[in-house]
C-alpha cells in the first residue's frame, strides 16, 4: 500500500463532507483546512461525522493562505438538473423549462461554480495540485455544455489539464440510479502525481493518459 502524508483539502459547497468521508474510508490521511457550506443541517451532519477529528484540524484562515493539495467543489446543481425545473415541467407557452443554467453573472445558484475559479485565481502563483468538481450528468447536455466547456477552458488557462467521467452509484454497489459527472483537473507540473491521485480517488486514470483524453 502507498503511504501518503497528510493531504490538505479545501471543501467548497461541502455538504455533509462526502469526499472527505470517502478518503477517510480508504485510509487516506486528510486534513480539512477549510469547509464552506450554507445549509445548516448539512453543517450539523458534517460536524457530527467528523467530531473526533475537529480538534486536530483547526487552522487560522487569516489572509486566506490555505494552500490545499486538493480543492473539491460540488457547486449547486439545481439550475443544471433535469429534476430541478423550479417546480414545473414547462414554462410559458408550453416551452420546456430546461433550467436557468449557470451563465457567468446570471446570479443563479449553479453559477456559483465560477466562484471556485475566482478563488483559485486569487491564490496567485500557488495553486491546488488537484481540483475535483462533481455535478449532475446534465452539465454535459446540449443545453448546458457551453458552461461545462467554458469551465474546462478556464481551468486550462490556469495551468490545469482536465479529465472527466460520468459515474453511476449503481456501479459501486449502491441501490440508486445516481449519475454524476466528476471532473479532475491536475496542474500540468503535477502530472507525475497522477498515479497517487488514482490511488487516492480509486479511479483508474492511466487509461485517460493512454487514450489522450486528458
Written overview of the protein:
- With 214 residues, the chain is of the alpha/beta class.
- The protein has one domain: Vaccinia Virus protein VP39 (Rossmann fold), CATH 3.40.50.
- The protein is 26% helix and 20% strand.
- It has a 6-stranded mixed beta sheet, sandwiched between helices.
- Strand 3 (70-73), helix 3 and strand 4 form a beta-alpha-beta unit.
- Mean pLDDT is 74; it is low at 86-97 and 202-214.
Question: Which helices and strands, and how do they pair?
Answer:
Layout: E1 7-12, H1 18-25, E2 30-36, H2 40-49, E3 70-73, H3 113-122, E4 130-136, H4 145-157, E5 160-168, E6 179-187, H5 194-201, H6 206-211
Looking at this protein, list some descriptive labels:
6 helices, single chain, 214 residues, alpha/beta, Rossmann fold, 6-stranded mixed beta sheet, globular, 26% helix
Helix content: 25-40%
CATH class categorisation = Alpha Beta
Number of domains: 1
Q: Please report which band the strand proportion falls in: under 5%, 5-15%, 15-25%, 25-35%, 35-45% or over 45%.
A: 15-25%
- CATH topology category name: Rossmann fold
In short:
The protein is an alpha/beta fold and 214 residues long. It has helices spanning 18-25, 40-49, 113-122, 145-157, 194-201, 206-211; strands spanning 7-12, 30-36, 70-73, 130-136, 160-168, 179-187.
Amino acid at each position: 500500500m502507498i503511504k501518503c502524508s497528510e493531504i490538505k483539502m479545501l471543501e467548497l459547497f461541502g455538504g455533509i463532507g462526502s469526499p472527505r468521508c470517502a478518503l477517510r474510508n480508504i485510509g487516506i490521511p486528510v486534513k480539512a483546512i477549510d469547509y464552506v457550506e450554507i445549509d445548516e443541517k448539512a453543517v450539523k451532519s458534517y460536524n457530527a461525522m467528523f467530531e473526533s477529528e475537529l480538534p486536530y484540524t483547526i487552522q487560522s484562515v487569516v489572509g486566506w493562505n490555505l494552500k490545499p493539495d486538493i480543492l473539491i467543489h460540488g457547486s449547486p446543481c439545481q439550475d443544471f438538473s433535469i429534476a430541478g425545473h423550479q417546480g414545473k415541467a414547462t414554462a410559458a407557452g408550453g416551452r420546456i423549462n430546461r433550467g436557468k443554467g449557470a451563465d457567468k453573472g446570471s446570479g443563479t445558484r449553479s453559477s456559483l461554480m465560477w466562484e471556485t475559479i475566482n478563488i483559485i485565481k486569487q491564490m496567485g502563483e500557488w495553486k491546488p495540485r488537484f481540483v475535483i468538481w462533481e455535478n449532475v450528468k446534465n452539465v454535459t447536455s446540449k443545453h448546458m455544455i457551453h458552461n461545462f466547456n467554458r469551465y474546462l477552458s478556464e481551468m486550462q488557462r490556469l495551468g490545469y489539464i482536465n479529465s472527466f467521467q460520468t459515474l453511476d452509484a449503481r456501479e459501486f454497489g449502491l441501490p440508486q440510479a445516481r449519475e454524476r459527472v466528476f471532473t479532475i483537473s491536475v496542474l500540468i507540473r503535477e502530472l507525475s502525481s497522477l498515479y497517487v491521485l488514482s490511488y487516492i480517488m480509486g479511479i483508474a486514470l492511466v487509461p485517460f493518459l493512454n487514450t489522450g483524453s486528458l
